[in-house]
Amino acid sequence: MYMMKLTQREYVQQLKKGIDTVLIPIGMLETHGEHCALGTDTLIPREFVKRLDAILGKRIMMAPEIAYGHSWALAPFPGTIDVSQRIFTDYVRHIGEQFFHQGFRHIVLLNGHGGNISALNEVSECLADLGAYVLTIHWWLDYREQIAAIAPAVGHAGEDETSCVLAIDESLVDMSVAHHHQDTLSRKIKSKKMGLRIFPHGNSGDATAASVEKGERIYQSLVPLMVKDIEELWEFAQSE
Ligand SMILES: [Zn+2]
Question: InterPro entries of this UniProt entry (predicted)?
Fold first, then answer.
């Protein structure tokens, strides 16, 4: 169920019925190559949530998305709205704490953006310290083997992400400006505008190989794995 659509009364009824799992999608607003929508990292988790809700919606409160995250490397590009890691970490942690104090002992953080990873590690530890059971899913990393079998030229707005956006709505992608770029720069060195060198067109991987069909296959193969991970979270909490 979607929290945004519930009245306060309906929400309280759900809590009384024992619903104690919240899923918080976390995305980003940033450049995704010249071809993909700026909201890619929020749009993809949104699609996963829609599909997860159809399966587990009676047991999970789907919270609204956190659509702004941290993106140091892509901050020099127009369209990237970067929140500092310190502020972002505190913000997400506070939201998680609010849910925990309202009765959600299972918290799922469904992340769509690489720059959020360090912050979410800290958030998950803080929430676990409170007594919550926290599952953090970075979809493109946690299921990378399954993704690579479908769309091997992965990357930022690469074959995988671009396919996933195409499968949502083809009008969100302009394939006429999709690029293939293999990034080889060292991450050991940091400089202010290194993102412009790492991602000359704002993307990595081969976006030109993306297709609607590949995106649909990614959703179909990953959703059951996410369901399994969420069920494992419940089993884990029950076993303690
Ligand atoms: Zn992305």
Answer: Creatininase-like_sf (IPR024087), Creatininase/forma_Hydrolase (IPR003785)
- Spatial distance between the Cα atoms of 27 and 50, rounded to a whole number of angstroms: 15
pLDDT-derived band at 204 (thresholds 50, 70, 90) equals confident
pLDDT in tens, 95-106: 999 999 999 999
Q: What is the pLDDT of residue 215?
A: 98
Task: Report the separation in Å between the CA atom of 11 and the middle of ligand 1, taken as the mean of its atom positions.
Answer: 32
83 is written with which tokens?
């929140």
Of 139, 103, 131, the closest CA to residue 230 belongs to 139
β-sheet bridge partners, residue 61: 22
pTM for the structure as a whole: 0.95
Reading the block at residue 151, the tokens are 């769309």
Residue range of the domain that includes 20: 3-235
Total structural domains in the chain? 1
- What integer pLDDT is reported at residue 153 of this predicted model? 93
The CATH number of residue 17's host domain is: 3.40.50.10310
Is the pLDDT at 183 greater than 80? The verdict is no
Tell which residue, 114, 66, 112, 111, has the closest CA to residue 90.
66
Distance (angstroms) between ligand 1 centre and the Cα of 163 equals 12
240 inside domain: no
